[in-house]
Amino acid sequence: MKIFNTKGWYRENQFEFFKDYEDPFFNITTQIDVTNLRNYCKKHQKSFSLGCIFIVIKAINSIEEYRLRFHKGAVVSFDKVNVGSTVLNENNSFSFCDFQFMNDFNEFVDAAQKAIDNCDQHRMHETELNPLAMVHCTTIPWVEITGFKHARKGDEKEQGIPKIVFGKRVEEGGKFKISFSIEQHHALVDGLHVGLLVQKMETIIKAL
User: Fold this and answer.
1) Cα-only R_g, the chain
2) For a Cys staple, 183 with which of 103, 138, 148, 163, CB 3.0–4.6 Å?
């Protein structure tokens, strides 16, 4: 973690404009073509859900703005951020599980699966990773998402952690798509960066 100087930043005006908003978060929901990801996971017997998480966290780590956070009133930058996700328990409740980012698809998915297998089903918030160097994730595979609102405690604007959601995977004309929602702090991120994120996700999927 290192201090990020917002003076002279190309987004300095936008940062100053949005940083003191009561609710500075904006949400965009779209669809991602995951045909190649679905086929890759099926061929190699890997978890499709964990594959989706790998794709988005790899794309996020390639964009500096998504690695910025607020810490004690200052903006800080992380070299790497990890991801924490909800995990469905056997009794249909959920708990949280953290996955360390790894640049290799198979290594990440295998390690994430082990983390799930060892996950405490009663755990709701503790983490051994830096809680600020995280992206929060959940999956709602039962419905197609066209919009999403997260539950919030009220202090999240002092951290700026992005939140992502994957919805139901659907097939259309032999293509597979999944709904994807991302919510981010507007003092740190603009719509341009959401577009860049989606492009990078699609590029990573095509390269599998």
Assistant:
1) 17
2) 163
Query: CA torsion, points 132, 146, 97, 64, in degrees to nearest 10?
Result: -30
SS3 29: strand
Length of the chain: 208
Phi/psi class of residue 173: alpha, beta or left (left: φ > 0; alpha: ψ in -120 to 50)? left
Compute the distance between CA of residue 94 and CA of residue 61 in angstroms, rounded to an integer.
26
What is d(CA 46, CA 105) in angstroms, rounded to the nearest whole number? 10
Q: What is the pLDDT along the chain (208 residues), one digit of tens a residue?
A: 999 999 999 999 999 999 999 999 999 999 999 999 999 999 999 999 999 999 999 999 999 999 999 999 999 999 999 999 999 988 899 989 999 999 999 999 999 999 999 887 766 666 778 999 999 999 999 999 999 999 888 889 999 999 999 999 999 999 999 999 999 999 999 999 999 999 999 999 999 9
- The enclosing H or E element of 94 equals strand 94-99
Q: What is the mean pLDDT of the chain?
A: 95
d(CA 53, CA 56): 5
Question: Treating both helix axes as pointing N-terminal to C-terminal, what angle do 191-206 and 35-44 enclose, rounded to 10 degrees?
Answer: 40
Q: Which residue has the tokens 């990078």?
A: 200
Task: Supply the pTM of this predicted model.
Answer: 0.94
Contact 22, 185 (CB under 8 A): no
Quote the tokens at residue 174: 């032999």
